[in-house]
Amino acid sequence: MGVQSLMERRRVAFQKWLLVRLCDRQWREQLGEDAEGRSGRIVTVYS
User: Fold this and answer.
1) What is the pTM of this model?
2) Which of 6, 21, 29, 35 is buried most, with the most CB atoms less than 10 Å from its CB?
3) Alpha-carbon distance 20 to 12, whole Å?
4) CA proximity to 29, closest of 16, 21, 19
5) Among 21, 29, 31, which Cα is nearest to 39's?
């Protein structure tokens, strides 16, 4: 039972990480290339 709960916790953590990665990529795609020059610092932090 302890092992199962540990696996569940790792799976949930992975799903959260995956969701963050997907949102981050969509956010960067929406900004587009013109935003890279204006907010290059932000893009660098997230990449």
Assistant:
1) 0.47
2) 35
3) 12
4) 21
5) 31
Q: Domain ranges in the chain?
A: 2-46
- Tell me, what's the pLDDT at 1? 63
For 1-47, the pLDDT digits (tens) are 688 899 999 999 999 999 999 888 888 787 775 555 555 555 555 54
Task: Tell me the C-alpha distance between 36 and 46, whole Å.
Answer: 12
Whole-number Å distance between alpha carbons of 31 and 23: 12
N- to C-terminal Cα separation, the chain: 38
The answer to whether the Cα torsion of 19, 22, 24, 30 is positive or negative is negative
Distance from the Cα of residue 19 to its chain's centroid: 6
